[in-house]
Structures are given as C-alpha cells and as structure tokens.
Amino acid sequence: MAQPETSLMSRLVSLCKRRGFVYPASEIYGGLNGFWDYGPLGTQLKNNLRDAWWRDMVECPPLGPDGNPLSIVGLDTSIIQHPQAWMASGHVAGFADLMVDCRESKGRYRADHILCLEVFYEKAGQRKSLGMLSVLSGEDAADILAKKAKKMVQKAGGGDVVPFDLATATPLTSLSPAEQSKVIGPDAENAGTLTEPRAFNLMFHTYSGVFQTEDSKVYLRPETAQGIFLQYKNVLDTSRVRPPFGIAQIGKSFRNEVTPRNFIFRSREFEQMEMEFFVPPEDGMMWHEFWVQERMRWWEAQGVSKANLYEHKIEASELSHYSKATSDLEYRYPFTAPGFGELEGVAYRTDYDLKQHQEHSRTNLEYIDQEANRRYVPHVIEPAAGLTRGVLVLLCESYQYDESRASPEWLKIKPSLAPIKVGIFPLVNKDGMPEIAEKLYKDLRKQHICQYDAKQSIGKRYARMDEAGTPFCVTVDGDTLKDQTVTIRNRDTAQQERVALSQVQTYLNEKLAG
Ligand code: GAP
C-alpha cells in the first residue's frame, strides 16, 4: 500500500491533534516546549491504559512462580516530599545531564547528544581538513552534517566533501578537554565556541510556604518511586503484607529535560506507573527475571506486537552502582526504527534506596521475619513504565494507513483500551430510526463508552469512528423497523453483520471483554 510522503510521526501527531488525542499545551500562547495536554480521546485512552495496569498489578496481580497470586498494594503519595528525600535518593547531587553552551550560536545541548567527526574535502587532487565538525544525534544527523560540510567547502573556495561514515563519530563526552576545545559546535561556524560540559540538574524546584529561601526550597518529584520507599514502613505496619510483596503507584513526574522531543516520548511533565517489589535479598535475581518476563507479556497483552518489543539487558559495566541487573523493555518507535527506544525499565535496585532513607532519616527500615527469626532490609525489583510513553506506543502500534478505506488513517487499538467502544447511528435521521438508535444508546452507555452520531453520511460517520479507533459501530436502518435487527460494523475488517437488536448487548459484551 502506497504511503504518503509525510513521515509517520508527523501524520500521527496531526491525527492526534485533529481528533483530540493530544494537543500542545498552552497552544494559544504559542505552546510550551516539553508540555502536552490530553484531549477527550487521549484522556480516555490514557485512563484505560492506566486502569489496565492498575487492575493487573494491584487488583488482580499475576500469579507468582509458586502458582499463588502475588501480593501488591496501591499507594498515592505527594508530588512534593521533604527535600531530604531527594538528597538521600541521590537526585539532588546526581540527577543531572551534562550540558554545553555554544558562545557563537547561543544554543544549549546535551553533551552526550553531540557527535564529533573530522571531515575532509578534496580540491585539485589535494585533501584538506574542514576541522572537527559536530552534529546532534538523530535520524537525519548524517544528512545535516553533509549539508554543513558542503556549505563550509563552498565558503572555503569549492571542492568535494570526502564521504564520511557517521558511525565512526565520537561523542563529545569521550573527547579530552583539549580535543573538545577544537570542536565546531552543531550550529556554529567557528571552532572552540563550546563551553566545557556542566552538570544541569533535571529537577524542577519551587518553594513551600511564604518565604522563598534555600530552606523552603522543595522539588517536584522526578519519579513516583521515592514516595513508595518513604511509605514502605507504614504500608508494612498497616497492611497484611510481608516480603515478597509490592507497592504500586501511578502519577505525574516532572523532569526539566534538556531536549524534550519526539512528541510525548520525552516531555517535562509526564506520568509513570511504577511498582516496587520487596523481596528477601537472596531471591532478588529470580524476581528480576520474573518481572522482566511478566512485563514483556503484559505489553504484548495490550496489543503491542512481539516484533516491536525488545529486551535490552544493560551490560554489567553500564549498570548503576546500586543495581545488580537492569533490563530496559524497548519499543520500535517510528523515530528509532529500525532501532528501539525505552518504554519501561525493570531494575533490580538491591537495598540501596531503603538503606539510603534509613541512613538519612535515622529510621529503622528493616523487616523483621518472626517465623525465620531474622531481620533484613528487603531488596527491591522495580518495573517502572511511562504511562504517557505507553500511550505513544499504543498510538504508534495501532496507526494504520489504507487508502481503500473511507478514512485512510485509522487506529487499530485493542478494543478494551479504545477510548470509544461503540458508535451508534441511525442510518437516516427520520422514519423512526433515531428513536430506536437513541434507546439503544441509552441502554448501552451504562456498560460501554458509546457515542451517538446522526450527522453527515454513514460513510463519514464510520470514518470518524475509525480515526478514533472505535472497534464497533451499530447502525439502525430500514430493516430494523421490519425485523428488529441492526448492522454491527467491525473496525478491523470493515465488514458488517446483522445482529438481533435484543442480542446487541451480549454480542458487544463478548467482543469487548478483556
Ligand atoms: N524510578 C525509576 C525511573 O524513574 P526511568 O527509566 O527514569 O526510571 C521510567 O523512568 C519510565 O518513565 C521510562 O521508561 C519512561 O517510560 C518514563 N519516562 C522517563 N522520563 C520521561 C520523560 N521525560 N517523558 C516521558 N516519559 C518518561
């Protein structure tokens, strides 16, 4: 099937805007970089994904290796916590990106995103260097660098750029300070205009109370996880849980990302779905493997194809100092294809966080196992997923393009996650059809999210529902008046079947379950 010229991502972003999935935040003021608002369909889709996670984590958690249901409880902690918590967690000192500023272009860049390569050109049989050029990593990096080199050659009096391989480029962060000082910045023409890399903390801060002093400085949480560690003891003391058990939380997190990009993939305000699973130290590796498999299976159950998911095991040499094992569950986004980008991290965080909070708060966070007559600080396995990033995955995965359909662009979202489950239409707005359709709508809306639509041609109404990812449309037509049947159109096949009016509810209940 021929695909339009524009990239899949730009088509998806414009569909999301046009159909009310995602809008740029503060759009009437020109937008705010890194912030997005969810429209009526996007909010419902996000809520459905959130609810599926909550149900499968907290209300009906998976069975453990012994065949018994796991014990996981829910929590909802404050976005703003005691500032000491972020000292203990390491976020105040270490949650930073290395940044460089360019004195010439006034741009600010993440140091690890700058790729450097010496580029040459030839003129009259002689090879000369254009210097150490740099470019920001990304899909078009090689093209951008080639254009820049061509321009520089023209300025130098003409010649041919010697073909180069961007795969041989070196990240700025791997160069020595002397080498860094010779680099021509990504948007600069002269060498040596980049500053030395400086740490830039990603936490947003504000002040709590009337006085805005260092003492009243507080942070917007950059992850939901720490709230769980801070309440772990209260949960242990007030619920009937004991290791192995989990505490789950869903909520907003904030990171002052230096380069928010790729739509809602990396934003400055986003939502996370995190679960901390507390286990006896000796069982840590076993539970880590369990959760990697379980989370992979879960994303597949949400309609994400196996082929687009990838378990990226982090090399031992690249693990955080406190982690014994981490796997990133990655998805093949249109902007990373054929490669993959992170969707969820499953980290074995050992007892690092609890021990840090134990030390900084001087509160004993040990678990006392009376049966085994031992006490220990539990180890933690953390499956940490992005909810808003998950919404992006669902949108990318479900986007279809087929020119033969009334709406060439349509969304094949798993029915149970679709924002609208059923469209209900009278074929024409007369002859008793609206009355039957309205009655059906009033009955069905008690169980499923339905939309009644009587405007424009039936083809246009199907097209609207396809774009919204609505799996079923029920149409009341002339035959309904005679034989009490309706047509039900299936979004995926675009086929219609006749179903008795009295059976519509049962039919939909079956198709929309799980
Ligand atoms: N508690 C561990 C933690 O926060 P993380 O890998 O930094 O780990 C977990 O974040 C997940 O949160 C990521 O896999 C991603 O899905 C999501 N996430 C992180 N930063 C994000 C951002 N700036 N925008 C959208 N989602 C983000």
CATH topology of the largest domain: BirA Bifunctional Protein, domain 2
Query: CATH first level of the largest domain: which class?
Result: Alpha Beta
Number of domains: 3
Q: Main β-sheet: number of strands, strand sense, barrel status?
A: 7 strands, mixed
**CATH superfamily membership of the largest domain, which one?**
Bira Bifunctional Protein, Domain 2
Give an overview in words.
By secondary structure, this protein is an alpha+beta fold. It folds into 3 domains: 239 residues, 2-Layer Sandwich (BirA Bifunctional Protein, domain 2); 105 residues, no CATH class; 107 residues, Rossmann fold (3-Layer(aba) Sandwich). It is built from 14 helices and 28 strands. The protein has a 7-stranded mixed beta sheet with strand order 3-14-15-21-18-17-16, with helices on both faces. A hairpin with a 5-residue loop joins strand 27 and strand 28. The site of glycyl-adenosine-5'-phosphate has 19 residues, from strand 15, strand 18, strand 21 and helix 10. Glycyl-adenosine-5'-phosphate binds next to strand 15, strand 18, strand 21 and helix 10.
